[in-house]
Design goal:
This protein is 21% helix and 40% strand. By secondary structure, the chain is α/β, with parallel strands linked by helices. It has 2 domains: 71-374; 375-424, no CATH class. The strands form 2 sheets. It has a 10-stranded mixed sheet, with helices on one face. Strands 3, 4, 6, 7, 9, 11, 13, 15, 17 and 19 form a 10-stranded mixed sheet that branches. Helix 6 (375-383) crosses helix 7 (388-404). It is globular and about 65 Å long. 47% of the residues are buried.
Length: 424
């Protein structure tokens, strides 16, 4: 089994090595450890507990028997841009200054990885442990030329930053976009990250972000995943929140054949807080796997999680959320909820909420529920002259709205509702 795993990793590394440039913005220690991890551990299978329902080794073997790396350029992305937002573009893993808007917001700095200052070099690979996950190791070994986004101390960005991650291939490709997002002391920003695949080729996107919310900082972020049937992705967020900092993320998975989200948040300063919300609506044979970790390291912190799924046809949804409260993290307040609707007898949902608590003065709870559309609510609507399909849509809209309603950017929320068919 080890040999098989190593062969898959070797196939990937050989294919990427033939086209990738030298990664010289990540320190040598991290690079060598990452390559060694891949060589020894390989790509995870369903024998790995964390990937029990998402056998990425098998998926890569089936869908990416060969990786041609025939990447395509893109000339216009106007249809994806938002009004009153600054757009940054990452094309096939590399930050594109040519396709991005000119950065003119006060307090905002963007440096590509090949132009990192000493501060940025210290941040990269400081939170994402190459020995913790194969896809962190893979990204570290073959990272694209990403960017460091920094919001200066005491600055509040007046408009959102909209980051478009565009993957485009003529055949089959694997790309490794990466970034550092840093909100400094008492600063505030809204970041919209949107992942899309254009073209007919299949793309495996291995995204990695290291996010830092400094003391009294606030980062509100939205992740919109819409990679269609040719998109396969692993998306890893490593977040560090300092004293009195606040981190909010809402992830909406609209499409993508296989989507794995790893969202790991460390609450590292007293009175820090984090809120994670997720919604996925899937059909056919799609697989969406959400894994979260809330690591409470210090006292007086708060976290909340709400993930919702709608599963149709033969699709599979997964939610695995862990609240980890360390010994010194007294006065922790943590809540986690997973709610799901099955629209077919062939759909599957696997939920595993977890609590690991070593402190004794805490308020922690989790809950999960899975069922079909409420028949009594359907009957109520049908009795008032609303047809079966219309009634089902109304109930699904109401179910999803609890998450979609957390999007504070009006145009983005409207686009998401339209894309999901909730604008009627």
């Amino acid at each position: 089994m080890i040999a098989e795993k190593t062969n898959t990793a070797q196939q990937i590394t050989d294919a990427i090595s033939s086209t990738a440039g030298k990664v010289d913005f990540i320190n040598d220690k991290a690079l060598s450890e990452a390559m060694l991890f891949l060589e020894n551990k390989g790509i995870p299978t369903n024998k790995h507990e964390d990937y029990k329902y998402c056998n990425l080794d098998a998926i890569l073997r089936k869908e990416f028997k060969s990786i041609s790396q025939k990447l395509k350029s893109v000339t216009s992305l106007d249809e994806y841009k938002l009004d009153n937002a600054l757009t940054l573009v990452v094309l096939n893993g590399n930050y594109s200054e040519e396709l991005s808007d000119k950065v003119i917001l006060r307090g905002l700095h963007i440096n590509s990885f090949d132009n990192l200052d000493e501060h940025g070099k210290k941040l990269i690979a400081s939170q994402a442990d190459v020995n913790s996950d194969a896809f962190i190791a893979l990204n570290t070994s073959f990272s694209g030329n990403g960017f460091h986004l920094r919001v200066e101390k005491n600055e509040q960005l007046q408009i959102p930053v909209h980051i478009l991650y565009v993957s485009s291939s003529e055949d089959t490709a694997l790309v490794n976009p990466r970034n550092i997002i840093e909100v400094c002391e008492s600063a505030e920003a809204m970041i919209i990250e949107q992942q899309i695949v254009v073209g007919k080729g299949k793309v495996f996107t291995n995204y990695l972000s290291e996010k830092f919310v400094k003391e009294n900082g606030k980062l509100t972020s939205y992740t919109i995943q819409d990679e269609k049937e040719t998109g396969f992705s692993v998306n890893t967020n490593q977040v560090l929140v300092s004293k009195h900092g606040k981190y909010d993320n809402t992830t909406i998975t609209i499409s993508g054949q296989v989507v794995r989200n790893n969202h790991n948040v460390v609450l590292d300063g007293q009175n820090s807080e984090a809120h994670l919300n997720g919604l996925f609506i899937i059909k056919d044979t799609q697989l969406v796997d959400n894994h979260t970790l809330m690591d409470h390291r210090v006292p007086n912190c708060e976290s909340n999680e709400l993930y919702k799924g709608v599963i149709n046809d033969k699709s599979t949804g997964v939610f695995n959320g862990k609240i980890f409260v360390r010994k010194d993290a007294q006065k922790t307040n943590a809540y986690q909820s997973s709610k799901n609707i099955l629209l077919s007898d062939d759909g599957t949902i696997n939920t595993k909420p977890q609590l690991e608590i070593y402190a004794d003065d805490v308020k922690c709870s989790h809950g999960t529920s899975t069922g079909k559309i409420d028949e009594s609510a359907m009957f109520y609507l049908n009795a008032r002259g609303i047809g079966k399909e219309a009634a089902k849509q109304i109930l699904l809209n109401a179910f999803a709205e609890e998450v979609i309603g957390k999007i504070e950017h009006d145009e983005l929320r409207t686009r998401v509702e339209k894309r999901l068919g909730f604008d009627n």
